[in-house]
User: Fold this.
Amino acid sequence: MKINETGRVGAINNYQRQIESQRKDTDSKARRKDEVSISAEAKELLKAQEVGFNPERAERIEDLKSQVTSGTYHVETGKIADKLAPYFKSFLNEK
Assistant:
């Protein structure tokens, strides 16, 4: 009569190896740190924003925002018509 089968001992060893490999994986993951990388395009955009910052323009934008929110902003229809006229002329000439 056979008490211990050789296959069962191997199965236990495989189980122990699996547990050990999982422990190693969790240890290596715990050591990893998060990294952030900024692309070259994003760096260019940031640089352009810094160089292109104009305090007068920023003040004008804030003034316009406050006028729009308070409802006192006045649309100059003549300027809009002057800007749109060339577009419509070219559109009509195409047809």
Observations:
- Residues 55-94 form one domain.
- The two ends are 100 Å apart (CA to CA).
